Structure formats: structure tokens, C-alpha cells
Amino acid sequence: MTGAVAGSATAIRGDADAGSRRASTRRRTRLSVGPWLRLISPLVLLIAWQVLSTNGVIPASKLSPPTQVWAAARELWGTGELQAALGVSLQRVGIGLALGVVLAVALGLLVGFFRIADLAIDPPLQMLRTVPFLGLIPLFVVWFGIGEEPKVYMVALGVLFPLYLNLVSGIHGVDAKLIEAGRSVGLGRIGLARTVILPGATPSALTGFRLSLGVAWLSLIVAEQINADAGLGYLVMNARTYFRNDIIVLGLVIYALLGLFSDSIVRGLEAWLLRWRVSR
């Protein structure tokens, strides 16, 4: 009888281990195949764009076909203009993103954990959030001139609010039962914050970070119209002067690809940090 029970327990453990291995294999397969599957719809749109342009449905004077855009990319790459513009834009968005993330995390943690900070900091931020930040461009020019500062600060301001709001929402939305369970095992405020609240708020924070990345590229497009003499925005504005529709479309496509690439990086980070969740 005892041997039968032991055998049953061993079989159950074996089934559980096998199930865990199968789940792990499926998860690895999804992680390796998923990024490639996400390229299907952009490729379909690209093919449809070329077909419609070739058949004259989309006039080249309105929207250059992919072949012309590719030719413009090769032209600018050959002269070195594209690499230089891309490097300047990436530097601007990188600095602005870092500044915005630091501010959003610092303010989000203060407001999320301390009631007095919630009362003192959140109302002004909510007031500022309702102001269209793109309308602040003239004020930024007056404050910071027409150099790099207003461009970087525009990106930082665009990054700030989505991450801040989602981080605060995630902290406040942690299940109260989990907090009580943590207290029941002797966790103090720091222990609760480190092992319960921050891990529980991580999904919302990552969602906010993805939104912030999208707004960062939008802010960059607008910021690079402020008397810029370098960057992708300058390249697009200069092309508009000479009616180079192909270069204008190329700039927009590069912005879109950069946004897709950065979003894919965050999705990978999300899959790694939240690997304890059931994968879809």
C-alpha cells in the first residue's frame, strides 16, 4: 500500500515536471518566433503600398512609392547625410528619454508611497498634464533658446506623464490582500515596497514606459522643427523646401521603424521581467 502511494506521488511529480518543461518549451518558442511574426503585417502594408503605387491608385506626387523611398535612402546614405541626421536624433531622444524616465520614476515613487507627496505634487502635475505640451514650444524657445535644450526638454516632458501616471496607478492598485499577507509574515514598509508593491506595480510601469517611448518619438518630430540644423526633422523640413516627397516619406518611415524597434525592446524586457506571468 505504501509503495503504491509512493509510486503515485512519484508519477504526479513526474507529470508536473513534464508539464513544466512543456510550458517552458512553449514559452521559449513564443519568445523566439514572436518578433518575426510581428513583421508580417508591416510587410503586407509595404507590399500593398507598392502595388497601389504601381497601379496609379496612389499618385507618386502625393506619396512616393517604396522603390523611390529606398532610392532616396541609398542616396542620402551615400552622401553620409542620413547617418549624421540619425545620430543627432538618437542622441536627442536618448537624453530626453533618460531625463523623463528619471523624473517620472522619482515623482511616481514619492506620490505612490507618501500621502503628503500625493497632496503636494500630484495636483500641479495633473494641471500641467492637461496643457498641450506641444503648445509649450514658444515658451521653451523663450526660456532655453533655439539650441539643443528645448528639443531635449520637449522629449523629456512628453515621456514624463505616461510613465508617471501608470507607475502611480500600479502602486495604488496593488492588491490589499497581498500587502496584508506581507505584513503577516513580518515585512516592514521597506520590505513590503521591495517584495510586494514594486513587483506588483511593474506591469503598469512597463505599460507606461511603452507609451512614453511612443510619445518620445512624437515629441522629437515636433521638437526638431525648432530651428534645427541637424537631425531627421531637419532633413524632412529641408526636403519639403525642395519638394523631395521621397525624402519626407523616408524620414517618416525611419521614425516609424525606430518606434517599432524601441517598442520591441520594451516588449522583450517585459517578457523577461514578467516571466512569472502566464504568457499569451
UniProtKB/TrEMBL annotation:
It comes from Gordonia sputi NBRC 100414. CDD domains: TM_PBP2. It is found in: Cell membrane. GO terms for cellular component: plasma membrane. One of its GO terms (biological process) is alkanesulfonate transmembrane transport. Keywords: Cell membrane, Membrane, Transmembrane, Transmembrane helix, Transport. PANTHER family: ALIPHATIC SULFONATES TRANSPORT PERMEASE PROTEIN SSUC-RELATED, ALKANE SULFONATE ABC TRANSPORTER-RELATED, MEMBRANE SUBUNIT. The chain crosses the membrane at residues 31-52, 95-116, 128-146, 152-174, 247-266. Coiled coil: none annotated. Belongs to the binding-protein-dependent transport system permease family. InterPro entries: MetI-like, MetI-like_sf. Residues 86-266 form the ABC transmembrane type-1 domain. This is Aliphatic sulfonate ABC transporter permease protein.
